[in-house]
Amino acid sequence: MLLHVPDVLSPAQVRQARAALDAAEWVDGRVTAGAQSAMAKDNMQLPESHPVAREMGDMILAALQRSALFMSAALPLKVFPPLFNRYEGGQSFGTHVDNSIRTVAGTPHRVRTDLSATLFLSEPAEYDGGELSVEDTYGVHSIKLPAGDMILYPATSLHHVTPVTRGSRVSSFFWIQSMVRDDGQRTLLFDLDATVQQLAADAPSHPAPVRLTGIYHNLLRRWADT
Q1: Cα 2 to chain center, whole Å?
Q2: Residue 66 phi/psi, 5° resolution?
Q3: pLDDT tens across 138-147, in order?
Q4: What pLDDT score was predicted for residue 151?
Q5: Average of pLDDT values for 183-197?
Q6: CA distance linking residue 121 with residue 148, whole number of Å
Q7: Which of 175, 180, 203, 208 is 20–30 Å from 133 (CA)?
Q8: Hey, how many other C-beta atoms are within 10 angstroms of the C-beta on 169?
Q9: Which tens digits make up the pLDDT trace of 71-100?
Q10: DSSP the chain
Q11: What are phi and psi of 38, to 5 degrees?
Q12: What is the Cα–Cα distance from 149 to 96, expressed in whole angstroms?
């Protein structure tokens, strides 16, 4: 499932994040790439341990908790601490697939990467190129969202970032271990949840939403890993 999650961060939060990130010290993005990805990766990244990365990461994690759309779609068990990257001057990231397991730096904690997320922190008009292209069975999807919006997609997907030929593309990226690891099962639960919410709004006195809610939770009990 490929899902656009709008307004994860407010305009004020985006401005706060950009002010802090633009003043921070960036390093070569290959520091977090695997051996294969390192050959395709050309960008800048904020070190994982940088105070700004931690502060802005905490702000993003808190915002995700408030996003009903994200919670319904991802069913998160663990969220990898958000990282931050920047592309400019022709930089890009060739086609790759994300590592299946990520270790949180400085800890023994591991996150299975069921879902990948990119939260855009630059407005589309600020840069040319820099589209995130995600491949699935329906073809290649080109994504360039407003600042504060996020794209959520299966971490099993081949994807790449096209060269940024003008301006600077700043974003946060991270991974989610879901309670439901199978993308097809997560999609069914997400669609069922949306249907229950819509039916409850359209017919609040009808008994069907209660029965469907029971079906949703019984499926979640069957599939969830907590």
Answers
A1: 10
A2: -90, -10
A3: 899 999 999 9
A4: 98
A5: 97
A6: 6
A7: 180
A8: 26
A9: 999 999 999 999 999 999 999 999 999 999
A10: --EEE--SS-HHHHHHHHHHHHTSPPEEGGGG--HHHHTTEE-EE--TT-HHHHHHHHHHHHHHHH-HHHHHHH-EEEEPPPEEEEEETT-EEEEE---SEEEPTTSS-EEE-SEEEEEE-S-GGGEEE--EEEEETTEEEEE---TT-EEEEETTS-EEE--EEEEEEEEEEEEEEESS--HHHHHHHHHHHHHHHHHHHH-TT-SHHHHHHHHHHHHHHHH---
A11: -60, -30
A12: 23
Q: CB of 91 within 8 A of CB of 163?
A: yes
Query: 127: closest CA among 155, 82, 86?
Result: 86
* Percentage of the residues of the chain whose pLDDT score is greater than 70: 96
Rounded-to-integer distance, Cα 184 and Cα 179, Å: 13
pLDDT at 29: 82
Cα(65)–Cα(63) distance, rounded to whole angstroms? 5
Max Cα distance, the chain (Å): 58
pLDDT at 38: 64
pLDDT averaged over the chain? 95
pLDDT, residue 226, reads 87
In degrees and rounded to multiples of 5, residue 43 shows phi and psi of -160, 180
Neighbours of 82 (CB within 10 A): 23
